[in-house]
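Exam revision sheet. Question 4 asks you to relate a sequence to its structure. Input first:
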Amino acid sequence: YVSKHWAEDSFFGYQYLNGVNPVVIQRCTELPAKFPVTQEMVAKSLQKDTTLEQELKKGTIFVIDCQILEGAPGTVLNGSLQYVSAPLCLLHLNPQGEMIPIAIQLTQQPGPESPIFLPTDSEWDWALAKFWVRNSTFYIHEVLTHLLYTHLVVEVFLLATLHQLPTCHPVHKLLIPHFRHTLHINVLGRVNLFAPGGLIEQATGTGFRGVSHLLAKGLSTLTYSTLCLPDDLHNRGVESLPGYYYKEDGLKLWEAIKSFVSTIVGLYYKSDGAIKEDSELQAWVAEIFDQCFFRRESSGFPAHLETTAELTKYLTMVIFTCSIRHASVNNGQFDFGSWMPNYPSSMRKPPPTSKGSVTFQDVLDTLPDVSTTCNTLLILWLLSNEPGERRPLGCYPDEHFTEEGPKRAIAAFQKRLAEISEEIDKRNRGLPLPYHYLNPPEIENSTSI
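Answer key, structure tokens:
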């Protein structure tokens, strides 16, 4: 499907809803000064009876802002310097329900040498601009959305659990199945992928230095609400966006986990006071705040918990991150990235500074070479490969809880997951491209690959 539709503007936009990085699109109600798109520029991309200003007010304009890439260094691949840009992309949700790109600027500073590219430009001008946006979101996806927001954050949750919560603690029993193989896979990643000279340096335009740069910037801006799905959707203004299957399935699963966690919390904590008095629990939360976020209050991560509701939300976030968030940004990597033009991992020429001169040969000379492409395919195949021994979400073969109350809660959780799976299967039968990455049987309990 991807190889047939990758060049279509509608599929370009679709991927920011249901591709491997469905967490970066934001509703735009006012154009930022750094992205001076005008009505004249986009008039042909809108319906005749409307204007850009009207669409902004209606809430049908969205933006992808890759500002975090500004200043990221490029690396050298096969003797050639690679280039990194920080583009902006404006998209329009048209009356047909398609998310269509309508303007692209390849840097954060507007000006004569940073033109705004449009669908009405020449074929290769517009194609190259889209390639730059896809390349930039490749970096954001792999380094931030995938590596930092799942693998590395989950490792902190895991280590704090081992440090602070004894095996008899109910929170330890609840979480430990969701940490299965995470430390193992992270160590393998450090050794084989992200170490100097590793596969990342052979396959991406940022290399080890660029990854380190992005991780530092990403961690300094990561917030609690980013990892809490309902809050994240609200903050990005996309909670009512149609055709957003990541959102639809994710919210159902968030609520299923929340209900399960709430039952477990209620069995072991009869009052808010019991939360405050649990010194082991408070030490666990404090270690995460200290070791992951360096006590940065702007992160919004709690340094302590006061109520059963706060604990329920926190534990829901942890389990969601280990399982659902990771599945949503990991499992489709080979599906969407194995066709290189859809997901270029490096760019061999700098962004164009003018319009009207880009040729097909320029595009070929900019996209990754064969060696880089092959290395990228290897990485994406390894990361998307199913683990040998699967444990889907809600599967707990290692019995940590022995009481009847938690066992009933687990059974109810599994029943709800089965219902959600049936709902997803039914919907997918009517879709040209089924969205199955958040179907419970396909979600691993833990970040294990």
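Marking note for examiners. The longest helix spans residues 123-164.
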